[in-house]
């Protein structure tokens, strides 16, 4: 009888049979959400009308004023002030060893105010002794993430990127949270595709099946459910490649 590890490994090697994300135009540096041209047309315009998504990089962040600094300040608020994580910070901004020129940062904002964000890093990345978070955890380089976070060896492939530091700002009200979560993951999928990725791997809430279904997306578990810093989490893989027309 196959072990659970073998079954999950084979599922990964073949890529899970999950629905790719809805067709989304690749994001330009800043793209306003147009209700008539994407799936957000079903949502109340007053909830999304001025929301914008920006994919920041070291090469383009100078074009957007203080947006990068505001994004890192929002991360500090969520992960250091609210969650109490012990992370590097300076001048009110949170950062770590994975914020390098190899990274991209997806920022959802409105009138300059950061509503949500996440970091994307290729699984081929390397900076000194570090690669990317899940791989480094598996190799015992990170004290706060168990080595058995994945069912299989962490992938090193140019078509798989890792998503980390996913957050919604505390200022996002309950009525808008689902909408902003949806917009964030839509932009993540589009940004990842633009960089040649077919899949995104990362740590998500352990209830992600229900959560992803609510925002009309899907993912498959690639690691055991566990509790870290009081949060119930699980590693998951999401296919972002567009389905080929038949």
Calculate the mean pLDDT score and round it.
82
Structural class: alpha+beta
CATH homologous superfamily name? Gcn5-related N-acetyltransferase (GNAT)
- The overall strand count is 11
User: What is the number of independent domains?
Assistant: 1
- Main sheet properties: 9 strands, mixed
Individual helix count: 6
The dominant shape is: globular
Task: Describe the protein's architecture and organization.
- The chain starts with a helix and ends in a 7-residue tail after the last strand.
- The chain is globular and about 40 Å long.
- 26% of the residues lie in helices and 24% in strands.
- By secondary structure, the chain is of the alpha+beta class.
- The chain has helices spanning 4-14, 45-48, 67-82, 133-138, 174-194, 208-214, and strands spanning 30-32, 52-56, 89-90, 93-94, 104-110, 113-122, 160-168, 199-205, 220-221, 226-228, 231-239.
- β7, α5 (174-194) and β8 form a beta-alpha-beta unit.
- It has one domain (4-239): Aminopeptidase (3-Layer(aba) Sandwich), CATH 3.40.630.30.
- Strands 1, 2, 5, 6, 7, 8, 9, 10 and 11 form a nine-stranded mixed beta sheet that branches. Strands 3-4 form a two-stranded antiparallel ribbon.
- The protein has six helices and eleven strands.
């Amino acid at each position: 009888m196959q072990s659970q590890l073998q079954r999950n490994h084979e599922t990964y090697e073949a890529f899970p049979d999950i629905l790719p994300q809805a067709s989304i135009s690749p994001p330009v540096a800043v793209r306003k959400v147009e209700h008539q041209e994407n799936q957000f047309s079903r949502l109340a315009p007053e909830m999304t009308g001025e929301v914008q998504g920006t994919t920041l990089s070291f090469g383009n962040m100078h074009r957007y004023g203080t947006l990068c600094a505001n994004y890192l300040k929002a991360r500090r608020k969520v992960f250091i002030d609210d969650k109490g994580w012990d992370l590097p910070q300076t001048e009110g901004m949170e950062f770590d060893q994975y914020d390098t020129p190899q990274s991209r940062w997806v920022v959802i904002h409105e009138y300059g105010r950061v509503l949500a964000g996440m970091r994307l890093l290729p699984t081929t990345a390397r900076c000194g002794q570090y690669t990317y978070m899940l791989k480094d955890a598996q190799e015992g380089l990170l004290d706060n993430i168990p080595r058995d976070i994945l069912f299989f060896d962490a992938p090193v492939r140019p078509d798989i990127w890792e998503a980390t530091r996913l957050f919604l700002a505390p200022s996002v009200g309950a009525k808008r949270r689902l909408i902003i979560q949806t917009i964030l993951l839509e932009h993540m999928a589009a940004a990842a595709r633009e960089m040649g990725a077919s899949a995104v791997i990362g740590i998500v809430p352990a209830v992600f099946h229900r959560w992803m279904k609510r925002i009309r997306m899907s993912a498959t578990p690639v690691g055991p459910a566990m509790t870290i810093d009081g949060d119930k989490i699980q590693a998951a893989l999401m296919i972002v490649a567009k389905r080929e027309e038949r």
